[in-house]
Each structure stands twice: as C-alpha cells, then as structure tokens.
Amino acid sequence: MKYLLIQAQQDTASAVDTLSRSYADKWEAAKEIEEAGVIMQAMASYDLIFVVLAVSLIIWFVLLFYLIRVDKKVSKLEEQIELKTLEKNHEA
Amino acid sequence: MKLKPWKYIVAIWMTGVIIAGFLIPIPDIDILQQSARNLFLHVPMWFTMTVCFAAGLVYSIRYLNKPDPVMDRKAETATQVGLLFGICGLLTGSVWARFTWGTWWTFAEPRMNLSALAMMIYVGYFVLRTAFDNPSKRAKIAAVFNVFAATTIPFLLYIIPRQLPSLHPGAEGNPAFSEITAPELRYIFYPAIIGFIALAVWLNDVLNRYKKVKLQAEQLTA
User: Fold this and answer.
1) How many CA atoms lie within 13 A of A27 on its CB side?
2) Does position B45 have pLDDT exceeding 70, yes or no?
3) Which of B7, B11, B22 faces A52 most closely, judged by CB atoms?
4) Contact by Cβ (8 Å): B23, B77
5) Which one of A23, A28, B64, B133 has the largest count of C-beta atoms within 10 Å of its C-beta?
6) Which helix (H) or strand (E) holds B19?
7) From the CB of residue B172, how many other CB atoms can be counted at a distance below 10 Å?
8) Quick check: helix, strand or coil at residue B22?
9) Domain boundaries, chain B
C-alpha cells in the first residue's frame, strides 16, 4: 500500500503554501515560504514534524492545566472540610 | 492550597519527554518508519496500566486481609486509572495499525484482541460494583473479583501473545526488546515510562482525595 496522502506533501514548501496560492489575489501579504519569517520556515522544515509537535504540546498543556486546576479545587475542598470538622468538634 | 512540588516535576518531565520524543533523530526502521516514535507513547500506556492494576490488586488483597473502606477506595481508583490508560493503549494501537497493517482492527492479531478482552474483564469490575448498595458487601465482592481479574493480565498480555504468531513489533516469541528496537530509542522510552507512571500516580492522588472529600462532605451534611 502506498501512502498517497503523505507523498502528495513531499514538497514541504508547496504543502505549506496551498493557502497563499488559493487566496493569492485576495491576500496581499502572502509570501513564498522562502520569504517567510524564521519561525515559519522552521515550523515548515523536516516534513512538518514540528507542526505535530506543536499540536501534541497544546493538547498536553491543556490537559495538564485542567489536572492542576482540579487538584487545586480538591485541595480547597479539603481545607474547607477540615475547618468545618474543627468547628463541629468545637461546638460539641 | 499549593500543588505538591513533585507534581511540577512530573509536568516538566512529561513535557520534556514529548518534545524529545518528537525531535530526536531515529534510525530508519522498516515498516515502522517514523511511527517507531509510538514506542514513547503507546507502549508506556500498557506499562502504566499494568502498574495501576498491580496496585489495585495489592489494595484489594489488603482489603480482604483487613476490611478497611480506604483500601477499597484506593483499589477502585487504581483500577479506574489503569483502565483509562488501557483504553488509551487500545485506541492508539488501533490508529497505528490502520497505517501499518492497513486496518483499524484485525482478529488475526492476538495481542490486540487479548488486550481488548482484558479491558472487558476490568469493565466487568465496575459493572459488578454498581450491583451492590451495601458498601461493605460491594467492597468485598469487588476485591475478590479484582484478584481474579488481575490474575488474567500476565496471561492475556504477556504470555499468550508470545506463544502465537504476531505482526506486532517486538513479537516472534521474544521479549518486547528485539534487534528491531534501536538502542537510542531507549533514551526516551525509559523516561517516558517513568513519566507516564508518575502521571498515573498524580491522577490516583487527585481521584482518591476527591472521593475522600466527597465522603466527608456527605457525613458533615448528614
């Protein structure tokens, strides 16, 4: 089995450039990848592997942020419960 | 209300593992090609799942030894997190199989089907738990079931797949590390296993604390 989708993108620069080609007449700032900034050129290098890395990191950081938030919420509840049990014991 | 320091270490460690896993140059491996990097993601899922299920087994045995609701809670949590990682392992394996074996699922691959079977056994653990209203009865029967469930794991995931012909990388009757595994992959593989297990410990911690607080809140309002 041949990987047609992947082969179609072997030319990384042209793969990146589909958008600017389609909208070239509407988008005056569109540049060839060679003229793009250093960061954009770096992202487009090595068959776009950095794009996948960026996507993976976004997912990881979002999940991590959520986990930390839940952890802190539980900590807060723990403190509240501790306070309430202290009060209850005090009353008794 | 601060996060424990080791959790920051886990967060940074895992971030490093992901970045390094994508960026290190890897040797050209036939068929696998760049998907060999799945070794850093898919394989640790199963290692982490095994560790979680083993922890669940220990807690279940401790519950049977001396009935303590805390042990039942910890056994349930460890099994939950283990099942979560196991399902991630199945899903990531299926995606990978689509592009190397050409199919999302094949009944010809023993490792794939037996791990799905193992997941079903653990799903049964949670179904069983819902069947009891009496907490101590639920805890006891669930602990007994968990001992049986955990006993199947070494056979379903490690022994039987190695006795059968398999297309899975690292198969052919040998341990998972064969000459197909380039040594440089291990520099990321081992840290990835440590990172994912630490992440599972973190998840266990949050879940256990949540269940404890929930119980305390119920007792306070009652």
Assistant:
1) 12
2) yes
3) B22
4) no
5) B64
6) helix B5-23
7) 12
8) helix
9) 35-221
pTM score, two decimals? 0.81
Per DSSP, the three-state class of A87 is helix
Domain residue limits, chain A: 1-44, 59-92
Q: What does the pLDDT read at residue B210?
A: 93
Tokens, residue B155? 């056979």
Confidence of residue A16 (pLDDT cuts 50, 70, 90): low
- What's the pLDDT at A42? 80
Please report the pLDDT score of residue A2 as a whole number: 45
Cα–Cα distance, B48 to B150 (Å, whole number)? 14
Contact call for residues B167 and B93 (beta carbons, < 8 A): no
B46-102 pLDDT, tens digit per residue, is 999 999 999 999 999 999 999 999 999 999 999 999 999 999 999 999 988 888 888
ipTM over 0.85: no
d(CA B11, CA A61): 9
- Locate B52 and state its tokens: 């979680």
Q: How many CA atoms lie within 13 A of B56 on its CB side?
A: 32
Q: How far is CA A46 from CA A10, A42, B22, B29, B44, in A?
A: 10, 8, 11, 18, 26
Residues B206, B211, B217: CA angle, nearest 5 degrees: 120
Beta strand extents in A36-89 (DSSP E only):
none
Q: Does residue B186 register a pLDDT over 60? A: yes
User: Which residue among B22, B102, B213 places its CB closest to the CB of A81?
Assistant: B213
The packing angle between helices B135-153 and B69-100, to 10°, is 40
Residues 6 or more apart whose Cβ sits within 8 Å of residue B217:
A77, A81
